[in-house]
Amino acid sequence: MRGDRIFGLVMIFVALGYILGARNIATSFMSDPVGPRVFPYIIAGVTLICSLVMVLRPDPEPDWPVAGTLVQLGIALAVLLGYAYLIDDLGFILPTIVASGVISYLINPRPVAAALTGVGLGIGLFLLFKVVLGLGLQGLPQGWGI
Fold this sequence. Notes:
This protein is mostly helical and 146 residues long. 70% of the residues lie in helices and 0% in strands.
């Protein structure tokens, strides 16, 4: 019960910091009507609501994860940090394939399915973001073409 409230309070401060950070996002006069700040505001708003629920209605008997689950969470965190670090140098496709494949394997340890998921998400998300939404993504590392 106390852990939920402490975590909820910490996340409230994180969400408020996220809102303050989003306020500093510069917008140009040619941006779309929604603007680049809306998505961070939505994420912060959802985080605030969830955090308030955790503070006001904590779980009386929380089930703590076993050690194996904590190891998997640590691996997932390391993969996501590596993804954020490598996406500038390696482009969008390769880090997305590796990150989504590893996380898929952590969820359901079937190597072939995880590899197919990684390739499908890496290429599919790139096509969605680049072709359909028109975002300026670098697909592969400099000099590879895409």
